Structure prediction request, 283 residues.
Amino acid sequence: MQVQFEQVAKKDDECAIIRAVQRTEEIQSAIELLQSGTDSVTVTKDGKTYLCKLSAIYYIESVDKHTYLYTKDSCYETKLRLYELEEKLGIYYARCSKAMIVNLRKVRNVSSELGGRMNATLLNGETVVISRSYVKEIKRRFEIS
Amino acid sequence: MKIAKIICMQAMMISVGILFAIGIMGIINRELMFAWYQPMAILGTGVLCALPSLVFMGFDELGKKKFLCRLVLHAVCEYFVVALAGFWFGWYSELSGLLYVSASYVCIYAFVWGLTLWLGKQDEKKINAALDHIRDKE
Prediction:
């Protein structure tokens, strides 16, 4: 595949266009890498260190100054704070409360509750609460009026 | 500042709601007369009715039961404010008047929460439709 690079003056003008016959796994990985900025994050579990792919994260939670990453069926700890991770993560990750970030690509559906909150059911069956103020942010993200 | 903004917004909305109820009453009775102090009384009632809204401050972190408890508390406080303001400002003098004010209150309160629920459901549909386009296949 031919790769072209064109320098632009502003960050806002940065854009990547991939022209391909098919959306192969390699292309999907490249898309995720471009959207996420970085591909993985260093995490620990039972004293062992791993690299966790950002696309595998379901949600991230901060509890008592500790940050935990939840994947489909595992939980890891990272030294990064929630706001540091927020900078690393791509457009598909959104705050759902003060102490939680959810991967919108892993949300099966949302259901509204009295008072403007929403419950998000994830692909692994877990449910996380989206606070009212962050529902507005998610709506803005999806350009929903 | 945020609290003051919430109170002002609520007061304006409630005042409009009261004016709407008075308008309906005027249509039913085919007569609508205002004493000079009534607009101020309506606005004052709006501000007093807005104060119980403070029970919902920080409700994002509340569980379902606690939220429902606060909702009941809010509804009761609002009703007392409306009934008391109605008595003070002479919106009713007999039991039938109090019943009308009570019925109006229940209708408006239910309408507001019904509208909130409906708007929430609309947002839910729109967000779910948007999620369908980005969801991972697992």
